[in-house]
Structure formats: C-alpha cells, structure tokens
Amino acid sequence: MIKRLFFGSPRFVLPGRGLALGITMTYVSLMIMIPVLALLVKASQLNGARAITLILDPQVQSALWVSLSTSAMAAFVNGVFGTIVAWVHVRYPHPGKPIINALIDLPFAIPTAVTGITLTHLLSDHGWVGRVLTPLGWQINYTWIGIVVALVFVGLPFVIRSVEPVLADIDTDIEEAAATLGASSRHITWRILIPTIFPAILSGVTVAFARGLGEYGSVVFISGNLPYKTEILPYLIVSKLEQFDYEGATVLAILTLALSFVALVLANGLQGWYRRRMGGT
Amino acid sequence: MKWVMMILAGLFLGLFLGFPLALIVTEAVAKGWHIYAQAILHPDTQHAIGLTLKVALIAVGCNTVFGIAAAWLLTHTSLRGKSIWMTIIDLPFSISPVVAGLMLVLVFGRKGWIGPWLLAHDMPIIFTAWGIGLATCFVTLPFVARELIPLMQTQGTQEEEAATLLGASGWQVFVRITLPKIKWGVLYGVLLAAGRAVGEFGAVSVVSGHIVGKTNTVSLHIERLYNEYQFQAAFAVSTLLVAIGVLSLLVHPLVASPHRTRSKGNTP
After folding, report:
1. Cross-chain residue pair B12–A85, CB shorter than 8 Å
2. Which domains does chain B have, with CATH numbers?
C-alpha cells in the first residue's frame, strides 16, 4: 500500500503499451482467431445427421479406436518410463547429465517426418532392431505397435519434463525423517514420493496423450495406413481433404479436438480430486 | 534398486533416442559421402531448401516480432485477462497440425471465406508458397513468446522503470536495457521456432499440393524420397533438419533457464 502511494502502480510507468497491444492483437486475430473461427463456423453449418452417419462409419470408428488406444498406450508407457528416467536424472549424479538433459528434448527438435522414416527404417526387416525382431515373428511396422512406438518417441519429453521439477523440489528431509522413524524404502516410495509426483505424472501423461491424438507426420510412415487396421484419425482428415470433402474433414477435426479437450478436462478434474483426497488424509 | 532404475532408464533412452539418432547419421552416409553430397546438391533438393529457408525466415521473423511484443505486453504493462491471452497464444500447440492445415483451407481455399475473392484476383494462397508460409507461421507462433514471457516475468521491470524515470525514450529502454537482458531467450526461442518451421510436415502437407520444384519443402521432399525408396538420399536431406534441431538443444544450456526459476517461484 505504501509502496503504491509513493511510487504509483509500477506497471503504468513503462511506455510501448499501445504498440505492443496493437501488434499482439492484430497478429493473434489474423493468425489464430480467424482460422479457429472458420473451423467453428464450418462446424456449426454441418448437417447433424450426416455428421453422425460419418462418425458411425466403420472406417471412422476403427480409426477412432486405433487413435485412442495407441495414444493411451503410448502415454502409459511414457508415464512409467518417463517417471523412471526423471527419477534417475534428478536423484542419481552421473557424468553424462548435460548430455542426457539435451537428449531428452530430442523428440521436440527432430521433425516429425524424419522421426517417421527413421523409426520405420529402424524397425524394417533390414533395420537394426527389425533384423532382430523379425526372425522372432515380431512384425512392428504396419501394425498398431508401430504407431505406439512412434507416439512413445514423440511424447517422451512430456512426462519427464513435467515430473523433473517436482522431484527436484521434494525436500529429502521428509524421506530421511520417515526413514529414521522406521519406514521401509518401499513404504517411503508409495506413501511419500508417488503421491507427491502423481499430479505431475498425470499432467505429463495427458499432454502426451493429447499430442498423440493429433500426431500425423511421425505415424503415417510406420503405420502403413491400412484401412480398418492402422488408419489414425489425422490420416482420415488428410484423406478427406485430398478428396475435397471439407465437411467430412471438419467433422473429424472437431472430433479430434473434442477428444483432446475432454482428456485435458478429465485430467484437471482428476488432479483436483487427488489433491483434495491427499489434503484430507 | 538404484541399478535397476538406472538400467531401465538407460535402456529406454538408448532404444528410443540413441538408436534413431545414430541411424539417421549412419544411413545418410551409408554408401559414401559422394552420394550424400549428390542428394543434397540435387536441383529438387536445392529448390526445396530454398523454399523452406524463405518460408522459415518470414515465419520466424514475424513470430519473433510478435513474441517480443506479446511478452512486453504481458509482463511489462498492465493488462487484464493475462491467462486468457496465454491460452490463446498457446492454441497452436494444442491443435493438431493437420487440423491447422484444414483451418487455413477453410479460410483461404477454393470454397473458403476469402478463397474465391483471392482466386478472382489471381492471388491463390492454398497450394502455393504463401499457404506454406501461413501454415508455418501458425504452428511456430508460440515459441518466442513462450520463451520470453516467463523470462521477462522473473527479470522484472525495475531497470526499465529506472531508465524511463531518468528520461530514456521507450525505444532506448527497449534497445539498451530489455534487449540485452533477453537476447539469449530470444535466440533460443528463434532456434526452436526455426527448427519446427523447417521441419513442419502435417500442416504444410495439407496446404502445399506437393508440386515438385514449386511447393515442395524439405520435409515433403524427404517424404517423397523415402516413398521412392531413395533411403540414403532421404536420410542425407534429413541430417540438414536434424542439425538445426541439435543446434537448438546445444544452445539451450546457455539460456538462463526461466522454466526452473518459474517452477520454484510458483511452488506454494
């Protein structure tokens, strides 16, 4: 209060507000608002009955199932291994730390098309991994497992980067206190560590899941896009667009956006519920 | 327990990150350096590189100016509804690139909002370099802003205020004080945006029309090479894109990490 009396509200001192507001507002309206609006208007003009028929079409239903199940599975794998990697990275000092730290963000830095051809090549009959797996009868390319592999790669940084700061912030005093009071290490893990980092794991998993639903470039090479088997929703959007079926593409786009939105809302709700429950005990 | 965790983490990272990275490099030079050079010097590749650089330069340039303006607006001035602004700026990250392409088609396409008018005036956007530019702008829009907002938030406004009170003009304050403070953040944001801009596939694929020698970007060219079974050429061209990505990863530690400070500041 006193500060305010003497110095005024500091935020009003600096110039450039008009210019910054002008640039930001114009750019955001042109680049984001108008395209988003175009999609929403198109969606509002859709024939409801036709839209529902399209969604219930067996090919769309199959793509929907493939997209949902592979994204969920990849997000789960990343949830487990991402937490392990974050744990090792934060808790155990090792010489390769800066390298690992840079490497974790690699999936963000590699273009999706390059990811796609690289993983496909790696898992093909002649690839380093495929050469080992194919004789065992494990075909990964052109199956749903291939899609999961691509989505695990693409979503890998999300869980790690979300869990890492939370783990780093945990006071080791609490664990030491628990250990001094006779808690076993398993007890400490399940009663102290996991509950603390669970919300962070969940939010990383959700972002990875949402990202997986919309992923296109890295998946289309490895999946082979076999109808009723390995077609994903974004692929169907592109093929509708290639046939100039804008209504169909819009229906599927809204479906994809709605699914990611629901996932994010659910995760938020789950986090809130979890925090309340933890706060209660 | 410790060793089990370390082995699991090592295996996971090695399989999913180490293998692919090593594969790109070895495949690119699998049959010798001259084929590597040939693939990169091929006229189609050269054209794709030229187009991609042009598009990336414009998109990243626009988004950098926007990013700095937006960060100044959100951290250095009074503004209501900052979280709404943040959500809107972040939208391109949560929208599937394919859907982003569809949106542009709905605005600029033949049957879109202003598409017919543009076609009548002989200014087509979809299936031209302009469409590619717009799609690239859209998908890389948040990078610089997202890098700068937390950075400028933690740096505060005291020095700028002092300069203003001592009579510096707005431009002087920005060039002499703010810019030197945020330059590494800008550089990192620009590198991230550039990496994404040259590598964007989904959104560009929808609006480009894949015309070789005309609207083929580097990543679309990689797709074509791979589908034509020219594997080494595909990976050779890929190394160009991966190099930009790896460069941004190497620059990152130079930037005073705003994320870490932010996460600590927010802990209740």
Report:
1. yes
2. 38-266 (1.10.3720.10)
pTM above 0.90, yes or no: no
Average pLDDT, chain A: 88
Tens digit of each residue's pLDDT (9 = 90 or more) over A42-63: 999 988 898 999 999 999 999 9
Distance (Å) of CA B245 to CA A3, A159, B52: 46, 20, 15
Same domain flag for A126 and A167: yes
- State whether residue A204 sits within 8 Å of chain B by CB: no
**Which tens digits make up the pLDDT trace of A30-43?**
999 999 999 999 99
Contacts of B242 in chain A (CB under 8 A): 109-111, 114
Instruction: Tell me the residue ranges of DSSP E strands in chain B.
Output: none
End-to-end CA distance of chain A: 38
| Length of chain A in terms of residues written | 281
pLDDT of residue A195: 85
For a pLDDT cut of 70, what percent of chain A falls above it?
Answer: 94
Q: How far is CA A278 from the centre of its chain?
A: 26
Mutate which of A114, A207, A209 to test chain B, going by most B C-beta atoms within 10 A?
Answer: A114
For A88, A100, A102, B88, the CA distances from A84, given in Å and listed in that order, are 6, 14, 17, 33
Nearest residue in A to B137, CA atom: A31
Its domain, for residue A41, covers 11-45
Please say if the pLDDT value at position B266 is more than 50: no
